[in-house]
Amino acid sequence: MKTSLGQRQLLLQKLSPQQIQLMKLLQVPTALLEQRIKEEMEVNPALEESNDEYADEQVDFDASTDAASAEEAATNSEVESEETQYSDDNFDLDEYLNGYMEDDPASYKERGESYQADEEDKSVPVAIENSFHEYLEQQISLLNLSTERDHIIATQIIGSIDEDGYLRREPYAIADDLLFSQNLMIEEKEIVDILKKIQRLDPPGIGARDLQECLYIQLLIRIEQGEDLDDEELIALKVACKIINRQFEAFSKKHFEKLQRQFSLTEKQLKAAIHEILKLNPKPASGYIAGSMERSSQYIVPDFIVLNRDGELELNLNVRNAPDLRISDSFRDMLRSYNDQRRTSKLTRSQKETVQFIRQKIESARWFIDAIRQRHETMYKTMFAIMDYQTEYFLSGDDKKIRPMILQDIADRTHLDVSTVSRVANSKYVQTEYGTRKLKEFFSESLQNSEGEEVSTLEVKKILTEIISAEDKRKPLSDDKLTQLLQEKGYNIARRTVAKYREQLNVPKASLRKEL
């Protein structure tokens, strides 16, 4: 049953600010945690990085999350009580300083007790630049544009190119953008003319409106720049151009016999042309960085690190790059100073407002620190349950050892809400000695094999992938045949389920897997 907007709003109203903050922080992956912490430090001057004095403080990952939540609730009550008390002239600043601040360890250390310095080089996060549009803009000078107007149009077109390198917006939409943003009346023809020039920039295929145009542009550029091509390669490229330009649908559906008849080709000639087409890049923007012709590798920052210590699994929370936090001493000192002054004279209205501001910032800092601490505890607790549930995989690295597991299984083990487990699992990665994997990959439904045992759908998908990889590409296996082979291996599975798994694996149907 879907929750209505009103119900969701009512639920949010019942949550404390700390709980809402924790929910949001649980969704933040490690790669973005440092940025999130720095953003909070920018808006709250009472929050600062811890110095060496606090270097020995650790997050107690063994602590119960429920206990932390109970402590949080008690803190909420205390804060609310203090806010009510402050509205009275009898507000006891001494009690606040001695009770609320001094008894609280208003700092914390990001690293868990399980963190070891010798693991420092196990995972090196690398920042990924998203400067492709800058790379294109640097090439505008190569277009020999005659007017500033043309330059503005070119910049607008480049800004409209998506992350794959395609221009999905229609010329009239770009003209509308220029009218509203630059107050320029631009004809669609002007946009199309400049787009054709942009499509000659690097990388080949950039600015295409669809896949057919993208491939066709790349083929034309290869022919134009193909001084070092031999006769056979040149002929193959020209045939490939005709196929993409005139019979793209037949090519995409792998109707090879039709292509041979249409262009009077031998099987060898068709193979050569298709070979040239398969060399092309269907996503011209992928991997390029500004000023470089090389593709950049995509690096993942793992949120967890699982180590195998002679058959004993060890879990580490990867928070190495996030700063350690504490409440600012200067804010504490300011509050103490106002308290000392209050003992000798009554605070003015302005001073009371200053005290309130300081208290609010300190409380906000404390809430954030507590939320970060609880984030670590909740994430560690959830990942530990997953690691324990999937011990056989983490010890062997064999995908077939991954047990059927749903969110409720981990919620039952951790006594956390299913939605909390979901937030932890979403967009998080774990590094193992067998590679880095998404946490969501460990969750799967189950089905029974012929022996009545429960097996993970991941295991079935693994077997399905192996069968398809080994098939004769001249005669790809139909879904019916795949179903039969899986059943022969002991997996009771229906044809429609096989089709669903195949689609989830991004494997096309048999007719589209056919090769010459």
How would you describe what is shown here?
By secondary structure, the protein is an alpha+beta fold. It is built from 23 helices and 9 strands. The protein has helices at 5-14, 17-26, 30-43, 65-86, 93-101, 132-137, 148-160, 171-182, 188-198, 211-224, 231-246, 248-252, 256-263, 267-278, 329-344, 349-389, 391-396, 407-414, 418-425, 457-469, 479-488, 495-504, 510-513; strands spanning 47-49, 107-108, 304-309, 312-317, 325-327, 429-432, 435-438, 446-448, 454-456. Strands 4-3-6-7 form a 4-stranded mixed beta sheet. α4 (65-86) packs antiparallel against α16, α11 crosses α14 and α16 packs across α19.
Secondary structure layout:
Elements: H1 5-14, H2 17-26, H3 30-43, E1 47-49, H4 65-86, H5 93-101, E2 107-108, H6 132-137, H7 148-160, H8 171-182, H9 188-198, H10 211-224, H11 231-246, H12 248-252, H13 256-263, H14 267-278, E3 304-309, E4 312-317, E5 325-327, H15 329-344, H16 349-389, H17 391-396, H18 407-414, H19 418-425, E6 429-432, E7 435-438, E8 446-448, E9 454-456, H20 457-469, H21 479-488, H22 495-504, H23 510-513
Parallel strand pairs: 3-6
Antiparallel strand pairs: 1-5, 2-5, 3-4, 6-7, 8-9
Helix pairs in contact: 2-16, 4-16, 5-15, 7-9, 8-9, 10-11, 11-14, 15-16, 16-18, 16-19, 18-19, 21-22
Strand content: 5-15%
Gap between N and C termini, in Å?
A: 49 Å
Number of strands: 9
Number of helices: 23
Q: Uncertain segments of ≥5 residues (pLDDT<50)?
A: 1-5, 52-91, 99-130, 289-298
The strands making up the biggest β-sheet line up spatially as 4-3-6-7
Mean pLDDT comes to 78
Characterize the biggest β-sheet.
4 strands, mixed
* Shape designation: flat
Kindly provide the radius of gyration, computed on alpha-carbon positions and rounded to a whole number of angstroms: 31 Å
Helix/strand/pairing category: alpha+beta
* Fraction of residues in H or I helices: 40-55%
In terms of quaternary structure, what is this?
single chain
